[in-house]
Amino acid sequence: MGIACRFGKIRPHGDLVDAFPDQTEMRTEQVRDLKETLGELNPDIKLVCVCGNHDIGDRPTEQTIQVYKDDFGDDYFSFWCQGCKFIALNSQLYFDSSLCPSQKAEQDAWLDAELSPSDCKHKIIFQHIPLFVDRPDEAAHVYFNIEPGERLRLMNKFIEAGVSTVFCGHYHQNAGGFYQQLECVVTSAVGAQLGSDGHGYRLVRVSEEKVEHKFVKVTDQIN
């Protein structure tokens, strides 16, 4: 999934390649092809990558995370742009960290520090796996969402810190909703579709007052 932002950045939201970390030969070829393609971007367009389950595995380990970091950089990070703070998370650690609990603990401590009070216009989260698909109180913990207890912990943490929006992918169709004032935006894929939304990306416009977004099919004209 991709997000194009008025700040001139493109953010692929996980599953940068299809091959899992243990599919070494296929993954190496896919990473090479992806980097060659991304190398054709206008250099004025900044690229920020967010890791997904195909990138580090459904049950990540320290080793698979390191493979991703060697290929694409940090698995979680933050940056500022025009007075707004953006935080990219390794959401797989909130889905299943059973094989790498220390990595989750490290990200949690880092996240608490990043969410501490700061003078910014907006705080926005990027992660691959959605907090929820249809509604914040959905009970099931399935392949496409975060476990309810962990979900509630994260949502309350984000709200307390003043986060307005969480942008996600993974579901391969558009979804999401609100938990109190926190919006979870789930965007369909540029490639493989599981619904009827079509191939596309999400265009995000950030102003002083609000964060606006719309899904754009690759065949649409952008105004």
From TrEMBL:
* Gene3D superfamilies in the record: 3.60.21.10
Q: Which residues form the Calcineurin-like phosphoesterase domain?
A: 14-173
The family database entries (InterPro entries) matched by this protein are listed as: Calcineurin-like_PHP (IPR004843), Metallo-depent_PP-like (IPR029052), STPP_CPPED1 (IPR051918)
Q: Which Gene Ontology molecular function entries are recorded, alphabetically?
A: hydrolase activity
State the name under which the record lists this protein. Serine threonine-phosphatase CPPED1
Q: What is the lineage of its organism?
A: Eukaryota, Metazoa, Spiralia, Gnathifera, Rotifera
